Amino acid sequence: MRKVDVVIVGAGSAGSVTARRCAEMGLRTLLMDRKREESIGLKVCGDEISKSHFDDTGIDYPKDDEISTKIAGADVFPPNMKNELRVRGWKEFDGWTVQRQAFGQRLLDEARRSGAKFLSEAHVSEPIFRGDQVVGVAYKDPNSGETKTVNAQLVVDASGFAGVLRNKIDSPLVEKEISKEDIALCYREILRLKIPLAEPNVARVFLQGEYAPNGYAWIFPKGDQEVNAGVGVTGGKGRGSPKSHFLKFKERYALLFGSTLIDGKGGAVPVRRPIWSLVSDGIAFVGDSACMTNPIHGGGLGAGMRAGIILGEVANGAIARRDTSAKGLWSYNTRYLAGFGRRLASLEIFKRLLVDVDDDDMNYGFERRVLEAGDLMAANRGDGFSMGAFEKARRLRRGAGRIGLLRKIQKASSLMKSIDRLYSSYPLRPSGLETWKKSVSEIIEEAVFK
Question: Residue 317's CB: how many other CB atoms inside 10 A?
Fold first, then answer.
């Protein structure tokens, strides 16, 4: 296919869902990936996805071999691993850990059955321009090894955190560089446990501490006796690699004693709000390429799927109007960033609170329940914390010994609400972006809790 309506680079979950929606809208769609077809879906991550993402997009729930196990709760541990918060009974937490390859293959198959064409082992090297407008991509043909081109009315970068195309777009709308502070380096292992899990439907998350400095560790069940366990370290901080931290964790955490390694891999994910603009002239960004991940733990499956549905619909309208400029694609920004994107932005404030609060304060906050399970869920929804007059008085009594910690939590709550309001009023046209960016940046710069 030398000329199409939409070419999508990257067949991960976000790229495959985008391709499916574009094809469903009647657009000639080409989906490309550097991997072999049978490897589509394989990626290093926690493998967990919430049911709400499927309810809100209309995508079918995982089933059969796509499901490792159902998730219906979580235990969140402070650095000393005592007084954990037990999150149970929250509908928005219900979901699954999935078998990534089987799930990814299903999303790819749905894109193809909707009419999208797929080209595997195609290494995309750069965008093609006509003036400032992106009009296609150059790639190495998997059969001949020759450099070929495909022209398109819209190019979508779904290539993952590397941002193969994003890094080559010279536009004031496009963020090319992502700060080291906004990157989590991760290592995870799929393990067969020596004994079955007591609660095979409960995830475990560990904040900070010696095993995950400036980051987090996790154990997500993938069955009665199999888990996805790993460590993510943010900001390039902490001594040693994520793998070295994980191996220490594995040696000292009793649940993992005597476990058998099935697979071990490392990777990097963005842990920040999405990029300022998801579009430029002739190009759009989706998934990790657009930093569409939960800033707390780097999970991005659901966030990217949500964006893919919106992008397919926006692409159809823009191509029908023959306007795939940034202005013609701008409703992708207003629909996603003013919607689900504002939740991710609010979570960045919460992430900064968790990173900046020292281990001693965090242990105290968990022990005295200055932080509660409801706070975690409210933050995950992007709602901030409930800090009315009665709530402030109640927490003051609990946390009387750490007034500084209470002030930090109250400050985080206020900033989360402020950034939520800003994202809810995302600029309606490109000309308003700079002023809006300045306001958001001021909030991000204020989000220091040391």
Answer: 14
Terminal-to-terminal C-alpha distance of the chain:
54
Non-local (6+) Cβ contacts of 432 within 8 A are: none
Residues in CB range of 440: below 8 A, 6 or more apart: 345, 419, 422, 423
CATH of domain 69-98+180-270: 3.30.9.10
pLDDT, tens digit (0-9, with 9 covering 90-100), for 28-71: 999 999 999 999 999 888 899 999 999 999 999 999 999 999 99
Q: Report the alpha-carbon distance of residue 218 to residue 201 in Å, rounded.
A: 14
Q: Say how far apart CA 407 and CA 166 lie, in whole Å.
A: 39
Q: What is the pLDDT of residues 227-242, one digit of tens each?
A: 999 999 986 655 678 9
Domain boundaries, the chain: 3-47+101-178+273-336, 69-98+180-270, 343-446
Whole-model pTM? Answer: 0.94
Two tokens, residue 131: 């003036």
Please give the DSSP secondary-structure letter assigned to residue 226: E
CA neighbor of 362 nearest in space, from 370, 351, 373, 350: 370
- In terms of Cβ atoms closer than 10 Å to its own Cβ (0-12, 13-18, 19+), residue 172 is exposed
Kind of pairing, strands 3-9 and 29-32? parallel
d(CA 9, CA 222): 30
Where are the alpha helices (H) located in 202-267, listed in sequence order?
A: 242-252
Q: Name the phi and psi angles at 89, rounded to 5.
A: 80, 15
Q: Considering the domain 3-47+101-178+273-336, what is its CATH architecture?
A: 3-Layer(bba) Sandwich (3.50)
Element (H or E) spanning 110, and its range? helix 100-113
